[in-house]
Amino acid sequence: MSADVIKVGLLGLGTVGGGVIKTIRSQQEKLSARLGKRIEIVKALVRDSEKERAVQIDQAILTTDFEDVLKSDVDIVVEVMGGVEPTYDYVRALIEKGCHVVTANKELLAKRGTELVELANQHEVHLAYEASVAGGIPILSVLRQFLRTNDISGVRGILNGTTNFILTKMEAEQLSYQEVLKEAQELGYAEADPRSDVEGFDAMYKLYILAQLVYGESLPLADVVRKGISDLSAGHIHIASELGYRIKLIAQAYQTEQGIRLSVQPTMLPVVHPLAQIQDAFNAVQLSGNIVGDLLFTGRGAGELPTASAVVEDLAYLLTQPFAPHPAWKEIAATQSGALQEDQCSLCYLEGSCSSATPDRVLHFLRTAGVSIHKLKVQFDLGGVLRAGLITSGLTAEHEAVLESDFGLSVRCFPVLETAE
Amino acid sequence: MSADVIKVGLLGLGTVGGGVIKTIRSQQEKLSARLGKRIEIVKALVRDSEKERAVQIDQAILTTDFEDVLKSDVDIVVEVMGGVEPTYDYVRALIEKGCHVVTANKELLAKRGTELVELANQHEVHLAYEASVAGGIPILSVLRQFLRTNDISGVRGILNGTTNFILTKMEAEQLSYQEVLKEAQELGYAEADPRSDVEGFDAMYKLYILAQLVYGESLPLADVVRKGISDLSAGHIHIASELGYRIKLIAQAYQTEQGIRLSVQPTMLPVVHPLAQIQDAFNAVQLSGNIVGDLLFTGRGAGELPTASAVVEDLAYLLTQPFAPHPAWKEIAATQSGALQEDQCSLCYLEGSCSSATPDRVLHFLRTAGVSIHKLKVQFDLGGVLRAGLITSGLTAEHEAVLESDFGLSVRCFPVLETAE
């Protein structure tokens, strides 16, 4: 690095990239005092160098050619372009030139992190990624700190702000998924193609990164249970609420005797559960340490400045730390299925015609089959449609099949997370 | 320090001291790997060396004479005996011998911290105190991290678990303060002499420490607004709830044009406010950074292991860091009174006989006096007692005096914290 300037390259200049520039500018004095050097953005890779931007930037810094970044001899690259291709190739080339990397890209880390960590260690450069999980919540640094004096048994949370915003609105305004999605897209909370958020991919990538940190390993992505929220109906949310529950897209990693398990799925929480209180686009992460107990961290999980705050903090931190090898990332295939365990409580939502399924007959069948029913809510509408919510344990896929075939019911079961867990 | 052992002295062996010993034992392997040395408790100062203890400890380690600790050549002292005298003298003597200090003692820090910080800097020893605020929540380390890239405008929270437990119980079970205090004492959540907790001293000490960190200065303790919970009645809590509010003992530090202000007082929160959700003996701290936005951290604020976790983490952390001077602590006297600002919203609780104060007459007086009334709840009981809750702005001490003298009402006003703030 040169004597008095740290040369930073930017890959991507969207919302977060703009936030990084603004933050470096507004905090330049603080940063210089801490680092003894000025931070300068010397090159920024963009798709379109003519585009109008919310942040003022010298046109000469912009380039659409990655080779310009590579040739500009940057000390550190901040990768906020997203995606895996060509991002992986770019980051790889920069690491091989001895450049430190700060990234907010959870997909890249979840898909190619094992290689990137190894490569960074080989070339003795820092790879920092606090911004990739839960935006401004410093969850990775907090986890690293706790891991030094605690065994952490599990971590769970709401890791995607878009889906939490949608679920909050669906409940509060009794709207359908499609109506709220449209509004979220208009507000800029959801992408034009919302699949990564609403199908749980984004939360899964973040969970994968958390698992690598907490357990020193993760499951391959293919072994992570992943269910999204796009098939949730106002009926599900209403019945849940009548039974005292709220649906959240919960990501969790925990240890079992057969190894770790990772899941991202709509989950029923008692309304008094701390994670049930997390509304709108907020994120929250709960961790359980054997010594410190349960802790909960809440904050904005995305957005220009919260994410930029984490990026700039990583950048400043790594400049003050000597290189130390990053613990290797490993993937261990799951040894058991990710399906609901039979003894686990679930909330089952049944819907169908009263003519084929009367509550009496349905309950008789379930009880005879050995399913325990802890709580029950039944509704009929004028059109003769039965909607029922049951808190059950012992309900298997076979029982679900019978409810569908013999009673003509559509069935959707959600795992239940109790407060005491 | 000797080649392969770090010699630790303990001042105090109560609940937290026992937790520290248990934690060091259960995490010895992890700690040794990290530090390259074994941690050994070589001396523990206790009041009574014959007392039965929850933790097994070699009798030869115990002493009732501080001189034994001083002579035993410890590298680090863990101070968990509490109080200011003689604790201050002991800690001072150890610092002067070049011994690092880890303390969980908020009272000591709030009353003598400016001197201890200066002394530690003079003797180039670490002074670490994560455990002194919010138990296992790593709030000081998180704040230090954010301060590097954020300007923090304010910090507020629930810093005392005992009072939060009492308020939670009073509301949930509609019990009086005295009934719940008794239960809390039986459960070990409150001390036999509960004054430090229930009168807000404990929370004030913690707030003082937070202010030193966030602003590089604090007010002298005498300038901190401090009100406790011992005069809260079931009536206050009931009226608050009817108006959509919940009372919490809120500690906050914030900047005004006239300098910083610190207060600890029962405060009305809308029930949807994140801090209103913090129940039982939990603590929570909310901070607002200009870049990261609002963050909330929740966890157990006290107890054997959460506090011990913070102590042991401090201990291990300082052993891996070279000495760096601690920023000096300063005290700046307040330049304005800590009373409620006139334009601030407050919830006023009025109680008196219907014969002297009819709602009509009271409201007429307030409106004529220019007080705005945003929300109102009035109750009468069979005995002719009027109880009213008013959300007002513009109510001054003079108005309160008139309500008391001319209407024979008892008046208690609480500041209101709105969600949007």
UniProtKB/TrEMBL annotation, chains A, B:
InterPro entries per the UniProt record, alphabetical: Asp/hSer_DH_NAD-bd (IPR005106), HDH_cat (IPR001342), HDH_CS (IPR019811), NAD(P)-bd_dom_sf (IPR036291)
Keyword Acetylation: no
GO annotation, biological process: methionine biosynthetic process; threonine biosynthetic process
EC number(s) on file: 1.1.1.3
Protein name from the UniProt record: Homoserine dehydrogenase
Homoserine dehydrogenase catalytic domain sequence ranges: 138-315
Catalytic activity: L-homoserine + NADP(+) = L-aspartate 4-semialdehyde + NADPH + H(+)
Organism domain of life: Bacteria
Family: Belongs to the homoserine dehydrogenase family.
Enzyme class name: oxidoreductase
Metal-binding is among the record's keywords: yes
GO molecular function: homoserine dehydrogenase activity; metal ion binding; NADP binding
Domain Aspartate/homoserine dehydrogenase NAD-binding, chain residue ranges per copy: 12-130
SUPFAM superfamilies per record: Glyceraldehyde-3-phosphate dehydrogenase-like, C-terminal domain, NAD(P)-binding Rossmann-fold domains
Pathway: Amino-acid biosynthesis; L-threonine biosynthesis; L-threonine from L-aspartate: step 3/5; Amino-acid biosynthesis; L-methionine biosynthesis via de novo pathway; L-homoserine from L-aspartate: step 3/3
